[in-house]
What we know:
The complex is a heterodimer of chains A (316) and B (215).
Chain A: E1 2-9, E2 19-26, E3 31-35, H1 42-49, E4 57-62, E5 65-66, H2 72-77, E6 79-83, H3 94-98, H4 100-104, H5 109-122, H6 127-130, H7 140-152, E7 158-162, H8 170-187, E8 190-195, H9 198-204, E9 207-212, E10 215-220, H10 222-227, H11 232-238, H12 242-247, E11 267-269, H13 274-284, E12 288-292, E13 298-303, H14 304-313
Helix pairs in contact in A: 5-7
Chain B: H1 2-12, H2 14-46, H3 50-65, H4 68-79, H5 83-107, H6 111-119, H7 124-154, H8 167-175, H9 179-207
Amino acid sequence: MIEIRGLVKQFAGTGRPAVDHLSLTIPEGEVCVLIGPSGCGKTTTMRVINRMIEPDAGSVLVAGRDVMTTDPVSLRRSIGYVIQHVGLFPHWTIAENIATVPKLLQWNQARIAARVDELLELVGMEPALYRDRYPRELSGGQKQRVGVARALAADPPVMLMDEPFGAIDPITRARLQAEFLRILRGLKKTIVFVTHDIDEAIRMGDRIAILRDGALVQYDTPEAILAHPADAFVESFVGTDRALKRIALLRVDAALEPLGSPSPPHAIPADANLRDALAMMFSAGVDALTVTGDGGAPVGRLTLSGIRERTRATDP
Amino acid sequence: MLIVEAWQFIVAHPARFFGALYIHVALSAAALGLAIAIALPTGVLLADKARATLLAITAANIGRTLPSLAVLALVMPILGTGFMPSLFALTLLALPPILINTCTALRQVDPDMVDAARGMGMTRAQIMRQVELPVAMPVIFAGIRTASVQVVSGAVLAAYIGGGGLGDFITAGIAMMAMPQLLVGAIPATLLAIGADRLFGHLQRVMTPVGMRAR
C-alpha cells in the first residue's frame, strides 16, 4: 500500500541527513508504527508521505502512485492526518471541524451533516450533545477524538498519525489506544503511526519500524522484535522487561495443555494474555490455572512450565 | 457659563459647525479606511516572511513615535495645505497600529493549527482566509480601534495645515482667546474620539469568532 524507497532528506544547516536511504513497505490495512529516539527521522519519514516535507532523494508510492508526481493538495485530501496537538480550529464548531475535508471536496450539505454525526458516533461522542460545541469546551481526550474523526471524514484509505496520544494523560491514553485500535482495525485503514513510546508501539502496531539516525534498524512484528532484537540498540530500546512485554502479546491458549485432573481451582479465559495469567498465578500462589472457553467451560490447563516452554520455543 | 456660550455659538452658526463636523468625520473615516486598505493586505502578504515582518514592525514602531503634529509639519512643505495633505498625514498616523497588530496577530496563530490545515489539503489562500485571518481578527480589530482614536484626535491638528474640521474652532479659539469657541471644537472632538473607541470596541467583540469569545 505504501512503499518508501531509498528515502533521503537533509535539512538545511544540519550535519547529517534526518533520513538516510530508508526503504520500507507497509502492507494494506496494517498499522505500521515508526519509533525511535528523538531525531531518528520518524516524523520526517511520515511527513514525506503526504508531501508535508519534500525528500532530497528516493520515492514514495501510495497505492502504486508516486506521491512526487501527485498534486500535494489533492494528495493530502486523500490521506488522513492526525497530530499530537490536534490543531482544531477554535472558531469552528466540532461539526465544522470534522467537515473540513468534505467541505474542501465540496460534498453537499446533507451528506456532510450525515457524515459528521456518523463519525461522532464512531468516536463515542453523542452527536446531539457535541455537534455545535466549540473546541475549547472539550477535554484533551475529546479533542483528540474529534481530531481522529476529522481525519477520517472523507474516508481516506491511509492515515498518518503523529504521536496522537502524546499529550494525553496516561489513563485516558490507554483507553483511547484500545478504542482507536478497534475503530481503525474495523475500518481496514493503512496507518502510519509515529510514537516514541515502545509500549504504545507494541500495543498499536501490526509491525514496528525501529529507526535510528535516519536509518531503519529493524522492521518486524512486535512479537518478533521482542523475541529477537536485531542488535544491542534495539534490545536496550525495547527495555529489559521485553520478556514480560512479549508474553503480554501471547494469548493463554497459545500455551494450552490438556486439562487433566484434578482441575486447578483458579480459572482464566483462553483469550486473556499470558502476562495476566502469570500475574494471577503469582498472586494466588499456584503454578497451574484452568483455562475456560467462550461459555466459561474448562478447555484445558495452563502451567508455569508451559508458559516457560512456550516462550523458550521461539527463542533462538 | 462657558458651555452655554459654546452652545449658543453652535446655535448661531449651525452651518459652520456641522460643516466642520462633517469634514472632521469624513477626514477621519477616509484616513482610517485608507490605512486599513493598505495595512491589512500588507500584513497578510508579509505573513510568511519572518524577516520582512520584523522590518515592517520596526518601521511601524518608528513611525509610531512621531508626534502627530510632527507628521503634519513634515507633510506640509511637500504636499502643501488642504484636505488631501491632511488625509495623507492622518493615514500615515493610522498605519502603524493596524500593521503591527495584523503582523503580530498572524504570527501568533497556533502553528499546529496551520500544520493541521495544510496536512488536510487546504491551499495557502484557504488557510489564510478560513483559518488564520478569522483567528487573528480580534487582535487586528484592536489595532484598528487604536488607530481610530488616534485619527479622530489627530484630525484636530489638520486645522494647522488648512485641512478643516473641528480643529478650526480650537485654533481660532486659541488665537482669539475665545474659550467658548475653543470648546465648540474641543468637546465634540473628544466625544467623537470616545465614540470611535466605543464603536470599534463593539466591532472587535462582534468580529471575535463565537468559539473564541471570553465567557
